[in-house]
């Protein structure tokens, strides 16, 4: 699954809180999402821009890592984790891959329900 608007906006929000952009984040629609290596948050936190709130960074990272594109990338059989500069760091564990797949399916179901709700509301207005 390639990047769409949601994870791209989340990546931009993360980078806006840092002293400079990080290569592991997507920067354009259509790019492939790279799963993070375990513990990458510490590396990212060191780049927090002076005056930026750590809680805002955590929210932006959570938004990115809970996007359908990130979960889908993490759930792939050959998924690799990546360091802050975007280099492969190691394979995603079977447990993490399964968890990402289950969460991805939940996210997809919620998207479907929201879409159906919007369509139902549109029909009711007409």
UniProtKB/TrEMBL annotation:
Location of the ProQ/FinO domain: 9-120
Pfam families documented for this protein: ProQ
Record-linked SUPFAM superfamilies: FinO-like
Keyword annotations: Plasmid, RNA-binding
Tree of life domain: Bacteria
Chain segments annotated as coiled-coil in the UniProt record: none
One MF term in the entry's GO annotations: RNA binding
Keyword RNA-binding included in the entry's annotation: yes
Name of the protein: ProQ/FinO domain-containing protein
